[in-house]
Specification:
Elements: H1 12-25, E1 28-29, E2 34-35, H2 40-49, H3 66-89, H4 93-107, H5 127-139, E3 154-157, E4 160-164, E5 171-173, E6 181-187, H6 196-219, E7 224-230, H7 232-238, H8 240-251, E8 257-260, H9 263-289
Parallel strand pairs: 6-7, 7-8
Antiparallel strand pairs: 1-2, 3-4, 5-6
Helix pairs in contact: 4-5, 5-9, 7-8
Length: about 290
Amino acid sequence: MKPDSRFLDLPKSFWAYVRMLGQKLGYTIRGQGTINVPTFPEILSGLESLGLSSTEVATARGKAKKFGSLLCHYFAYRADVLEIHVEPNLMDARKAKKLFLEHRKRLKPSCPLPMNKQKGRKKANAYLTCIINMLIEANAGDFTCDYDPRGLTTITQDSAPLRTLARRVDGAFPKVVNPVAVWEIKEYYHTTTFGSRVADGVYETLLDGMELEELRENEGIHVKHYLMVDAHYTWWDCGKSYLCRIVDMLHMGYVDEVLFGREVVDRIPELVKEWVAVAKARDKRERKSK
């Protein structure tokens, strides 16, 4: 899932409204389990109840200004994209296992196929991670991939560290030092609640995105950043509010794309080809400079 261009490069204040209204009005409609799409009168009422001015979003007669209309359009878009695109792509453990076994049989991979962190009957391959790894290997050509970085992501300049991210990512291409792309994978097939660990995963990706934004704005270096998530029960049944936050994070520019469940099957091969092209061009420049 790529961001909608209508909601890119918006001022930080726009997202302040989105977050604040989400907290006040709710991300979902209680008792219905559907994504909440606030009406403009509800937006005005929410601002009033918080003791905040509505002059940015409404005229003196209570009509929506451009900023207010954009908020309404964004809330409607977010609900539509979650219900029409995201929910159908999310898999449960049974579907993810089937997809994993199909790819393992077809691709005959030599890349790592890690296990999840569960115990007993829940212990199994980390299905989404394995599918992603296999698809990267199948499309990377002669390039290697760091499927499980054991160090912090580092960007160098003139053989010296320029930036080092605060935490480890789940994968880096082609390696964790000067990567073309990095990604986080959040798969929770066997969880029975939306716990703090799942919520922390969203905020970890946000932290990475903020550091990469600073790198891009101040050094002109763009490291592609992706979030890949799956588990229908965890994210859709229990975590719709966090799916809303993920869509917000995508449009704030903190991730380049978010891949939901089976979406990785079609999208990962396309992305890897893009990464390979960038890596080849960079290697060519470096050889010329020597």
